[in-house]
Specification:
By secondary structure, this protein is mainly alpha-helical. It contains six helices and no strands. Helices cover 56% and strands 0% of the residues.
């Protein structure tokens, strides 16, 4: 991508020359190697959700302590964030996965920790 994007974004390179320029600068051997290796593009979120998911259970063990130690106060435009903090505090108080109003809020089973 470090080679491809600058070429594609450069308006001085005509469209009909971009492909040939990329093939020559990257090299056909490298392009064939990438294609033959079963290259899979990153998901639309560039792997961020997967990374968060893998660390979620680790972070859950600290949530109750952080929420009880910090007095969260929001400024203008933070109503949604403050509501989310209140929901997390309530989930931790209840020790279970129940969402607001007793509905399942998509939180994984088990206490939020």
């Amino acid at each position: 991508m470090d080679v491809i994007l600058p070429v594609l974004a450069d308006p001085s390179i005509p469209d009909e020359e971009a492909g040939g320029l990329l093939r020559s600068s990257i090299g056909m051997n490298k392009l064939r190697e990438v294609v033959s290796g079963g290259w899979r593009p990153l998901p639309r979120d560039h792997g961020r959700l997967s990374a968060m998911d893998s660390s979620y259970s680790y972070l859950r063990q600290f949530t109750p302590d952080v929420l009880s130690a910090i007095d969260f106060q929001g400024g203008p435009g933070t109503a949604g964030l403050m509501e989310a903090v209140a929901v997390l505090k309530e989930l931790n108080r209840l020790g279970g996965p129940q969402g607001p109003s007793g509905r399942s809020g998509g939180v994984r089973a088990g206490p939020v920790r």
